[in-house]
Design brief:
155 residues, alpha/beta, Rossmann fold, five-stranded parallel β-sheet, 5 strands, globular
């Protein structure tokens, strides 16, 4: 059976050290290590993690140590992110969030996982992102929080 490919944004990695989110972020990392899912990491996440605290950078390295896919920004992803911006789904200052969605979409991730409930894991935003993606010839993207995806029992 094909492993689901999951694009994770930086909030998932940082969530490993947040009291509210640690159970599910760390559970998802354990799921990656167990081979239940295949993480998709990106150069955008790598750049964001580079400015994060040491423990977040170490957790990123830990995830890089499992079998994963790595995607880099591309003209296709930039065009798609620009399409999201043109539809004013998010303000320009949150362009990196548009890039995360675009990279996951272009990479044909099975889903994107994030703790960003303001800009990413939000019903009306997901519908808008997917409408633009479909218009530009891409498949819709499923978006969830780690709590909905990790196999860990918590809370």
């Amino acid at each position: 059976m094909k492993k689901p490919r999951i694009y994770i944004d930086t909030s998932v990695i940082g969530g490993c050290f947040d009291e509210e989110f640690a159970t599910w972020s760390n559970g998802l990392v354990v799921d990656f290590q167990a081979g239940l899912f295949r993480p998709i990491l990106s150069d955008i996440v790598a750049a964001e993690v580079n400015d994060a605290p040491e423990r977040v950078r170490e957790k990123f390295k830990e995830i890089l140590g499992v079998e994963h896919d790595f995607v880099a920004n591309s003209p296709e992803a930039t065009e798609l992110a620009d399409g999201y911006q043109a539809r004013k789904i998010l303000p320009p200052k949150y362009y990196a969030d548009c890039l995360h969605i675009a990279l996951a979409t272009v990479a044909e991730a099975d889903l994107l996982v994030s703790w960003n409930f303001k800009h990413i894991v939000r019903f009306e935003k997901i519908r808008l992102f997917n409408a633009v993606s479909l218009e530009l010839g891409y498949k819709p993207l499923q978006i969830y929080s780690p709590r909905e995806v990790s196999t860990v029992e918590g809370g």
